[in-house]
Structures are given as C-alpha cells and as structure tokens.
Amino acid sequence: MTETIVHLVRHGEVDNPGGVLYGRMPGFHLSALGRQMAQRTAAYLEGRDITHLVSSPLERAQETIEPLAEALKQPVRLDDRVIEAANDFEGLTVGKHPKQLLNPRFWSKLTNPLKPSWGEPYAEIAQRMDLATRDAKDAAEDHEAVIVSHQLPVWIARLHFENKRMWHDPRRRQCTLASVTSIVFAGDRIVRVEYAEPARDLLPSATEAAGSAMGSAR
C-alpha cells in the first residue's frame, strides 16, 4: 500500500529577549537565527513529494513555512487546530523567573500536572491535532503534507499517535526548534513515526531547544 506522510514541523527560534511565555499572543516573530532555521528545514523538505502545506495562524509558524512554500510554489492553508496550546501563564516570564509561581494567586493552577491544570488539557490538544493531521493526510493522499505548529501540540500529537501517556516531563520532549516529526500512514493506519532535526547545529543551547516547563514559551 502506498504511504502518505504528514510532517509536523516545529517553528524556528523566536525573537523574545524578555523571555515572555507568549503562547498565542500576536506580534512574536522569528529571530534572525529562526529564519536560518526555517531555511534549513525548507531545504531538508524541498526535495520530497509534498503537495499540501498547512500552518498555525501565529506569525512564527507562518514565517517558518514561508521558505518552503516559496520553494515549492504552493499555497499555505492556515488551520486554527494546530495553534499553540492555551496557557494561563501567557504573558508572564515564569520560565525565566519561576519564583513568580510562589504567588498564591497561581497555586490553583498548579494542582494537576497530569491534565495540566494551568492550560489546555492534553486530551483536547491531541484531539485537534489528530483531526488536523488526518485531514492533511487525506488532502495529500499518496504524497506528503507539511504542518508547521508548535512544540507542545507536536509533542502531544506524537504521544497520541504512538499510543503513549500524555503527561510527561517537558524537559524531555524530543521536539527541538525547526524539527520535523513525520507521521507515516498506510491507508488510514499509522505505521511509524520518524524524527529529524535539520537545524540541529543552529540550536542556541540544549536548554532553549527543550522549551519551557509550561510548554508554551517558544
């Protein structure tokens, strides 16, 4: 049976000197290094049989897919289902200054890391990413599709497709900046998951590449 592949790409580095957990906030764009990462990932994917391009509506995702869209001369469809996870700490700098979480007003948000209690439930992220991935698979049947999303949605999608538990240590996510997590289908059945880091040598540091403890800082 012919395979169809959906590549889930994490966006490149964002210009965020203040260390804000920006989540879904508008106005956060790729840094100069992030644009290099986007070019590197585009070069990695350019020679593949890609017929369908999708992006999160956030600026950093659209800027990451732009070099690939230009190289392939293909349009990009924006899909709200692959947007960053909602996070109650959006706009704060808890990744850079974790002592903020000692404020009693945040304690109710820290009661259940398994759900998690501070943001969009993992199960809901998995559901929307599953639907978006399968729609992209149908659109690119017998070919390949690319979805540019964000670290937590991509990682939760991978756990979901591999039938693994959703709660996890954020520091151990295998989803670095501009990485490619490829979901390989035979018909409607997932046969394997592949992973690549085309911009590995451009990663600023292992700590930054791993992302924030709450899942939305990058």
Structural topology:
Layout: E1 3-10, H1 32-46, E2 50-55, H2 59-72, E3 76-78, H3 122-139, E4 144-149, H4 151-161, E5 180-186, E6 189-196, H5 206-210
Parallel strand pairs: 1-4, 2-3, 2-4
Antiparallel strand pairs: 1-5, 5-6
Pfam families: His_Phos_1
GO molecular function: phosphatase activity
InterPro entries: His_Pase_superF_clade-1 (IPR013078), His_PPase_superfam (IPR029033), PGM_Phosphatase (IPR050275)
Q: What this model shows, in words?
A:
- Residues 206-214 have low confidence and may be disordered.
- By secondary structure, the protein is α/β, with parallel strands linked by helices.
- The chain has a six-stranded mixed sheet with strand order 3-2-4-1-5-6, sandwiched between helices.
- It has helices spanning 32-46, 59-72, 122-139, 151-161, 206-210; strands spanning 3-10, 50-55, 76-78, 144-149, 180-186, 189-196.
- Helix 1 (32-46) runs parallel beside helix 2 (59-72) and helix 3 crosses helix 4 (151-161).
- The chain starts with a strand and ends in an 8-residue tail after the last helix.
- It has a single domain, classed as Phosphoglycerate mutase-like (Rossmann fold, 3-Layer(aba) Sandwich).
- It has five helices and six strands.
**Terminus-to-terminus distance:** 38 Å
CATH topology: Rossmann fold
- Amount of helix: 25-40%
Q: Note the run of SSEs as H and E.
A: EHEHEHEHEEH
Number of H/I helices: 5
| CATH homologous superfamily (4th level) name | Phosphoglycerate mutase-like
Q: Compute the average pLDDT.
A: 90
What about the largest sheet? Answer: 6 strands, mixed
Shape: globular
Q: How many domains is the backbone divided into? A: 1
Question: Do you know the CATH architecture?
Answer: 3-Layer(aba) Sandwich
Radius of gyration: 17 Å
Q: What percent of residues are in strands? A: 15-25%
* Number of DSSP strand runs: 6
SSE-based structural type: alpha/beta
Strand order of the largest sheet: 3-2-4-1-5-6
Low-pLDDT windows of residues? 206-214
**Main CATH class:** Alpha Beta
GO molecular function, one term: phosphatase activity
InterPro entries: His_Pase_superF_clade-1 (IPR013078), His_PPase_superfam (IPR029033), PGM_Phosphatase (IPR050275)
Pfam families: His_Phos_1
Protein name: Histidine phosphatase family protein
